[in-house]
């Protein structure tokens, strides 16, 4: 059963917005697209901050919007994190965090308490400060805490990192990953930064000029030959991997991806844990045979070519599936047109994917 | 008699300020937030006393509140007497006359808050009324302080309207400014000096305190 079933239809600036999507009971659903594609509007419609006449929204079986119903924002059990933290400047951090809690009714009902939230977000030492005295990253963490404390059934995040610099972003991402792991509620995350999506999203809804261009699991959408995402220079595949073993001598973990063994640097998790790995298309080369003698490449799983598309005049993006049958997790390889011709590659061939780098992209 | 005028003036100004805040704040909120096309017409009517000569305003108020007009008869029914040449009449006139001095800064303060804090409050389950009291009012405090001080000071200083609608009844409508006028007319310059000098000092202190408080409040918020 879906936790969120949404459809919004109406005029938005110069184009017509018509978006329908659903989100599962757990995990992060990313609304991804360029600026002005309508993703923030969709989020605001879910929150009830904006109203599109032709809309319907059902959350956890309750109708929040239909032709005849519109539940006011303050009656929707949501947590909303704005692009700019939007804290109340006249209240302390503690009072900000408690503002929503006081209004969401007593009862323990699965809510996070102040200490828990402060702990989860690393802001316990900031509680008595004024928001004016916080850094941008701290402010955003308080805003997330404030939203969590209001006992939300769904968490809505509108580009929470976009106002922050790169370093601060990297500070906050681990907290968001923890939320992703620990919260048993759907999170709808608006972003135009593919790197955030790769790290956080489980489901991806790709928006373009007010329409849904594609949606599905993040791995499938990122590696979909029909979409331009996979042909971007920084395109990556996201796969989920189970930790099998750790070799302390070389500092390498063995993980399994669709039945293929990978060696990745570092102790990526406890044995049996499932984590998410990011493999950049530009880090994958192809070979007809596994002749790794004289090569430093650690990972060269056998894969099947399922599609290939030109990317610019001289390069090809090759869409692979791990395993000889071509039914495993998707991978992308970006190779030169010359190599494609020289190797005589074609869709349906089995090849070895020589993987130069595997990045751990957070827990799955 | 001098003390009587001072006491009467302070009583009038305090009562007027309280009424101004009670009526002006919701009016300013509506002016700041409404999307009605006619709101600026209301805004202009409220602002009229800024540009009208006080005698013009006083003249029309005299007619409006007098026994010949339905409004005057209605007010008379409520208060038990017609309003012109009474303290109650002065209060009504002062509230109308000083309204723009409260509405303007409070409206500006509300507009400066913008949508975002109120949207944040709504996503945190605060009803619009709740958000008004717990977010909008505290954030607009500098504007409310400025409005209250200006409304108070302006009421203390009014003359033309008072003369038109209140006349010059000791203990009832004879406020400071009228008393000063009286002293000068009757060549009691020493007494005129005391009151006039006192007004200068008062005005100076009001302006100084407003500026300092305003800056301090602003500073606290950023």
How is this structure best described in words?
The complex is a heterodimer of chains A (about 375) and B (about 220). Chain A is an alpha+beta fold. Chain A contains 8 helices and 20 strands. The mean pLDDT of chain A is about 90. By secondary structure, chain B is mainly alpha-helical. The termini of chain B are far apart. Classes of the chains: A alpha+beta (about 375), B mainly alpha (about 220). The interface between A and B is medium-sized, with 25 and 21 residues.
Structural class of chain A: alpha+beta
Mean pLDDT across all amino acids of chain A: 89
**What's the number of extended β-strand segments of chain B?**
0
Rg of chain A: 22 Å
Index terms:
heterodimer; A: 364 residues; alpha+beta; six-stranded mixed β-sheet; five-stranded antiparallel β-sheet; B: 222 residues; mainly alpha; 82% helix
Mind sketching the topology for me?
The complex is a heterodimer of chains A (364) and B (222).
Chain A: E1 4-12, E2 15-23, E3 27-32, H1 39-47, E4 54-59, E5 62-65, E6 78-81, H2 93-103, H3 114-121, H4 136-149, E7 154-158, H5 166-182, E8 186-191, H6 194-200, E9 203-208, E10 211-217, H7 218-222, E11 236-247, E12 252-257, E13 260-265, E14 274-280, E15 284-287, E16 302-310, E17 315-322, E18 330-336, H8 337-342, E19 350-355, E20 359-363
Parallel strand pairs in A: 3-8, 3-9, 6-7, 7-8
Antiparallel strand pairs in A: 1-2, 1-4, 4-5, 9-10, 11-12, 11-14, 12-13, 14-20, 15-19, 16-17, 16-19, 17-18
Chain B: H1 2-33, H2 39-51, H3 54-65, H4 70-79, H5 87-113, H6 116-123, H7 128-139, H8 141-157, H9 160-166, H10 176-185, H11 189-221
Helix pairs in contact in B: 1-5, 1-8, 2-5, 3-9, 5-8, 5-9, 6-7, 8-11, 10-11
